[in-house]
Amino acid sequence: MLTLLLRKMRNTKWMVLCLLIGFIMAAAMTSTIPIYMNASLQRMLVKDMESYQTENNVYPGEFSTEHDVTLDIPAEKQRQEIEKVQNIVQNGYDEMGCPAKYDKTFISDTYLYVTSIDVSEGKSASRLSLSAMSNFDDKIEIRSGRMYKPGKRSDGVYECVATEKALKVSELAMNTVYEIGNVFGADKTIKIEIVGIFDVKDGCEAYWAEGLSGYVSNMFTDYDTMYGEILDTGAVNVSEMAVRYAMDYPNMDMNGLGGISERISEQERIFDENDITLSLPAKSIFTDYASRASQLRNTLWLLQIPVMLMILVYLFMVSQLNIEQERNEIAVFKSRGASRGQIIFIYALESLLLGAVTAVAAPFAGLGLCKILGASNGFLEFVNRKSLPVKLALDAFIYALAAIVVFFVTTMAPIIPATKTTIVEHKQSKAKKRKLPLWEKLCLDFILIGGSAAWLIYYNKQQADVMAEGGGEAQAINPMMFVASTAFILGCGLFIIRIHPLIIRLISKIFSRVLSPSAYVSFNNIGRTASGKERFLMIFLILTVSLGLYFANTARALNRNAEERVSYAIGADVVMQEQWENTSGENRASDAAQKADEALAKFNAQKSGSTQDTAADSSDESDDSDDSESVIQYTEPPIERYEKLAGVKNVARVFVKEGITVQSDRMRVPAVQKNTGKRGFEDDYKTDYEIAANEADAKSSSNTTSNVNLMAVSPGEFSKVCWFADRLLPVQINNYLEALSEYQQGIILSTAFRDTYGLKQGDTVNVSWGANDSFEATVLAFVEYWPSMNPYDVAKDGTYMNFAVMNLDYVNVMTNIEPYQVWINMENGALTEDLYKSIEKSDIEPTLLRVASQEIITEKNDPMLQGMNGALTLGFLIIMIMCIIGFLMYWILSIKSRTLQFGIMRAMGMKYREIIAMIMYEQLLVSGAAIFAAIFIGGIASDLFVPLFQYLYSREEQVPGFVVIPQRSDYLKVYAIILVMLLISLAVLGRLIQKINISKALKLGED
Q1: Domain boundary at 430, 448, 468, which?
Q2: pLDDT-derived band of residue 492, with 50, 70 and 90 as boundaries?
Q3: Domain assignment of residue 112, yes or no
């Protein structure tokens, strides 16, 4: 049996190789799920930790516990208590499942003083703490003097080291012997000598995660010496201890962090019961990690759905082609006495051999893929980034084995029906008319298209209702997004292959009189046999190309919108602001004191006065506040300094003021305007009277709003530096800037002033802020978006912030000049590093510095976006590889199965180039039609389903709105792969046809 199997595999070595490649790709793709997932989760955790350390200047991996040791007990009892605490903390840390980079135990007696110093002249005795720390010796660097020696010297002195600051605080000196005792009774003393000054050793920062600031009065001696000899003297007791671990978070096992929040809570409970305090800076990160990890894990899983479906189709197609080639051989086996079980066993054994090879090779192939994909900066974009911390684990082999089982069943599915056919039935089946396949009878294509379209309509309506109610929070990925999109593509593909034969026959009938012989044969073959195996190739190509384009458009949309969010929020390549000098600094302190006195006087008057007096005071409050507010005169620095910075092309002055007041008699501003239509959590605690009062307030209105952010620009300068997407406004932004330039008293307002407040173009509004007088402006236009202005920013009262845009020159004339931002447009190819260096060399000291390119990099480093980019890129590459292999394999087998036909045609006088032309026509009618249809299906699926990814972000985050704009380069990549595939296949097929031996073909026909 084994000999027969090996002979069979040798005879069909190319088919076996294609199956093996499919097995390895499928299992490798599956094994990348745990590998890539764990690596992505680890990178996410590491980046969160690094960000925490940068922002808070604290090592986030510190696991620090402290305990006050019982005093006035024998040394042995203290040691037992210390060991008990050490065991509790160690057990608690071990249950965390986090490897430790360093661990240490700290013990100290904080109740010591120097008894040998003369205090007769009124000086206070020097206080100090004698301390020891495990693993201390190789974690410090001696700056002066030498390292202590363990134990007691021959003269009865214990040696210590200290920091330079500790010596200053304690007023002690090196190389001096001091006698120290306990402040509660110095009947017993010991002698110490400070022999060295130490500092943190380079590379040991994690060991000193708590820093040295807490050791300003500590003298450190050998840990074993203090724990043993010194405690036994009775002069020193351990008053406090700490057990600290430095987590090696880059090497954490991601599989063990699932319930880490619960384990931390349990440890806190146990520590609290034993009077142990826990400090864990990374607690908030770990708490947030669970939800983020779950979201990333689900996302990566869901992204595999279309790819796994594609792999199943590939394996089924390969297996089906294999069976079609060997159906005659199977029938011969059966007619010669072989049982169905024996035949199935032969093919099962073949699949098992391929599965065994795959089980070994696939996880390593998956590991290699993950290493490459770790450098993905976008879809099919790679940068010189540190690779993902990928490593093989048992999960990868389990996933590979699970995939092999599934794919084993897939490859065996076509074999079982084939074993039922005898040689006679097989020959008869070739002459019978093919029946409609089951999916065509059930109208599966219409069901898939209709079902996915119905779900899409329902989901969009559901989200629209949520938005209408004031929702818009970020949501997790809905699994149906991928299921529905894949079902839509599959349904469209089935519909195409349903109507494809009809179209071919129609074209053949119309043009039959003008078709060349090769074209006629091609149309005739495809039109008659299009209900057979050609359908496998067509649905395969439609799925691969459509999913490839869908993946490309999905990744491009996610990356484009991530970049646009950053660019819109900043508004230009670089935004800077510096501290301006002012001429009113000496008056501000007295003004502040005066305001405080006035506020206190008003408060006392309201507290003791009548209701009428209080109302009067309240009515005058705004006037008094305005009168008392002083005007600060600023000195404007020269703008030319920014133009001289490295890489700067254009600069613009942009004045931004938050919370200005806009008033107009034509405005109707509701007094209470919530940005949500839902009953809030806080409303549950309000009485019906309070709710009714709020509703009554909401019905009232005023003609003033202070929830307005102002931007004043110089139109000519601003047009050269601002970043803006033209699709966000009805006309190009320069038209609005030109209007501001021509009519300087104009103002551009956000659309809420028109839609909610009732203003119209040409209306006049009064604008004011601070101590400036109110001034008029005429409404020129209403816009929904403006560079850096987020229409969904929420004000303190719960309403959305509005914005206004004015001419900077007009604002400066009507108000006192105030510090403004400088927006910069950089030269193409300018380096951010050069800009930073030139800023350091200049006299500019920015209080605000935002660089769009750097923030885009930070945004793209988001683990969720990186994970999706990697998964989409991996899926695209796998799909395209399968497309090429499946395409070549189908046509090679097709040509080989038609050897007799080609031989007869050559013998009848058909030229070689006509045979090639016939194959080209067939490729065009089958492959070309499938690819052409797939491009449209992929584009339609992208337009329908990719916009659903916008719900991954909240409304405030998703500004400007999510948009799907296909990029030509992505399509060119797909087209290039398809072109290479067609050229290679044509060359291979031409070579095969050229080698056809006509005499053998004719002899085969005679037989």
Answers
A1: 430
A2: very high
A3: yes
Query: Are residues 444 and 399 both part of a single domain?
Result: no
- Residues, the chain, total? 1007
Per DSSP, what are the bridge partners of residue 189? 181
Gap between the Cα atoms of 191 and 197, Å rounded: 18
* Three-state DSSP state, 841: helix
pLDDT of residue 460 exceeding 70, the answer is yes
The two structure tokens encoding residue 739: 């209007």
104 and 30 part of one domain: no
CB 299, CB 273: distance < 8 Å: no
pLDDT (tens digit, 9 = 90+) per residue, 786-802?
998 888 888 777 778 89
| Domain boundary pick from 401, 430, 459 | 430
Spatial distance between the Cα atoms of 52 and 61, rounded to a whole number of angstroms: 10
368 and 336 co-located in one domain = yes
Q: What is the mean pLDDT of residues 62-85?
A: 90
Q: List residues bridging with 200 in a β-sheet.
A: 140
DSSP 3-state of 197: strand
pLDDT of 605 higher than 50 = no
pLDDT of residue 617: 43
Reported confidence tier of residue 258, pLDDT bands at 50, 70, 90: low
Domain span including residue 4 = 1-60+293-430
Whether residue 100 sits in one domain with residue 198: yes
Residue 884: in which H helix or E strand, if any? helix 863-897
- Contact between 803 and 736 under an 8 Å Cβ cutoff? The reply is no
Are 146 and 42 found together in one domain? no
How far is residue 535's CA from residue 529's CA, in Å, rounded to a whole number? Answer: 9
**Tally of CB atoms within 10 A around 34:** 25
Q: What is the pLDDT of residues 889-909, one digit of tens each?
A: 777 777 777 777 777 777 777
**Cis? peptide before 819, omega within 30° of 0:** no
Per-residue pLDDT tens over the stretch 53-67: 777 777 888 888 999
Place of tokens 């709003």: 705
Of 925, 935, 933, 920, nearest in space to 983 by CA: 920
At which residue do the structure tokens 């699926």 appear? 941
Task: Kindly state whether residues 81 and 213 are assigned to the same domain.
Answer: yes
The first and second tokens of residue 733, run together, are: 């932004």
Q: Is residue 762 part of a domain?
A: yes
Cα dihedral 360, 361, 363, 369, rounded to 10, equals 170
Count of domains for the chain = 4
The pLDDT tens digits for 377-400 are 666 666 656 666 777 778 888 888
Q: What is the pLDDT of residues 707-757, one digit of tens each?
A: 899 999 999 999 999 998 888 888 999 999 999 999 989 999 999 898 888
Whether 307 and 404 map to the same domain: the answer is: yes
Q: Is the C-alpha dihedral spanning 170, 173, 175, 179 positive or negative?
A: negative
Q: Which residue, among 289, 253, 283, 259, has the nearest Cα to 271 in the 3D structure?
A: 283
Q: Quick check: is 559 in a domain? A: no
- Look at the pTM and tell me if it is higher than 0.90: no
pLDDT at 622: 41
For residues 302, 306, 309 and 310, what is the CA-based torsion angle, rounded to 10 degrees? -150
The whole-angstrom separation of Cα 683 and Cα 690 is 9
User: Does 411 share its domain with 326?
Assistant: yes
Tokens of 343: 């035949």
Helical H runs in 666-714? 688-699
Secondary structure letter of residue 649 according to DSSP? E
Average pLDDT value over all residues in the chain: 79
Q: Is residue 849 part of a domain?
A: no
